[in-house]
Structures are given as structure tokens and as C-alpha cells.
Amino acid sequence: MSPSRPAVYAGSFDPVTMGHLDLIRRAANLFDRVIVAIGVHPSRKPLFTAEERTALLKTATKDMPNVDVVIFEGLLIDYCGEIGARILIRGLRHSMDFEYELQIAQANCDMRPDVDTVFLPTANRYGFITASLVREIASHGGDVSRYAPAHVCEALREKFA
Prior knowledge:
The protein is α/β, with parallel strands linked by helices and 161 residues long. The protein has helices spanning 18-30, 50-60, 76-83, 95-111, 131-139, 150-160, and strands at 7-11, 34-40, 67-73, 87-92, 116-121.
């Protein structure tokens, strides 16, 4: 038996939402190992540092033994090559996501044909949730407990206090 190759689910996770966790859990049921890869982009100004996002994600996925959380920089497709991943997982909320994600998947395939993209549709109850929506609601003192885990809600309250 050969060692399993990981599937990678990447994003900024600023902050991690219930929608993200739904996709991570479903991917963990489909693949032997899932790497949740937190992208660091020098031009973006996230609310949470990469280290804070890592800690929040590790807490949120602690009951998923086949999930690892890492930070990466640069092109995701290059990171996949570095770690030997052949599967990229992308979530789809609506048809506009599909158009965008398909274009990215095709570019990734052109650069690294040995990596395939697997699209997972978001569960209906999470289809409208985005990290930016959660940040916006939380920044005004709104209740985001339906959209993010309790420890993330607490971290948001602390950030916006």
C-alpha cells in the first residue's frame, strides 16, 4: 500500500466559518488526509494574523484526526507540488463561484496537470455565509453565533472590542 497523498482545501479563513467547517468535515470523510492551507498574501490586510487563523482552525478541527492546518505563501498550485498533493478541494456556493473556480481550476491544470480540482457544493444552510459577511456583522456587534464556532465568535468580540 502506498502512502496516501493529501487533498488540499485552501483559503484565507479570516475567520473560519460554519461553511468552511462543513466543507472540511465532508472532505475529511472523502479523503484519507486533508490539509487546510491558510494562504498568506502580502497585499491583503486580514483581521486575524496567519498564526491566529491557524490556532482558530486547529481548535475548530480538533475532532478531525485526518485534518492538518498549515500556512503557505505563493501559488497554491506550487504548494501542492511541494507536498505531493494531487487533489485541490474548492467549495461552491452559487453559479458565480463556479465560473470563477472553473477558470482557476483550468489555469491550475495547465500549470500542473497532475493536480485535479474537486468541487464540493456548499450545504444550503451555509450558502450565503462568507468570512467577510461574518466580519462585517461582528464589527457592528452583531450575533454571528449561527455562522461561526463559539471560539471564533469570542475571538471576533475581542478584535472588535
